Structure prediction request, 206 residues.
Amino acid sequence: MGTFLILDTLIQDSPFLLANIYGPTKASEQGQFLDEIANHIADKACQSEHYIITGGDFNATFEPDLDCSGGRPFIKDCIKNLNDIMSQNDLVDIWRVRNPNKKRFTWRQKNPLIQRRLDFWLISNSLQDDIEDADILTSVKSDHSAIILDIDSVKNINHGPSFWKFNNSLLDDEQYIKLIEQFDPACLEEINYSDDARVQWPLAKI
Prediction:
């Protein structure tokens, strides 16, 4: 089962939609999952013209020749749904735009060696000039690599006090509670390499 969280926010007085994605691993669920995301984006974007930044593990690859190594790669049916989202919202795969012929992977299986670029950023085409860097970083204690997006214009924002505060209005959001309940066991399993609560707490919040 996949999960996603879409936030409607303002950055320098400009409306942004920020979407965090974890796509289903089962091919039978992927198309419907992406259609649901498309509907949520359409509902939000129709209210005003938003910049869109969508990132995460989509559990799918665009180009077998470039995004895959090992195994028997093929283009999944859900890529059509993903291409539709990109076309309807004028989104680009920013890492691939800047690395048109490069082979880098974000997920790997050691034995037998299989590698895929499953994690990526899809951003509004109009944001390209504001992106200082889009990169894939080496992972630690994970079979996925981190993907980063450095937005140059965000550096000029005056940030408020540097402390974390939970938005407790989310406790009235049934969808949020359901997502947390679904994700919590996997989160705890991922951080169980440390018994130190001082390590586990910030990782759980992330």
Remarks:
- The mean pLDDT is 86.
- The first helix runs from residue 27 to 45.
- The two ends are 21 Å apart (CA to CA).
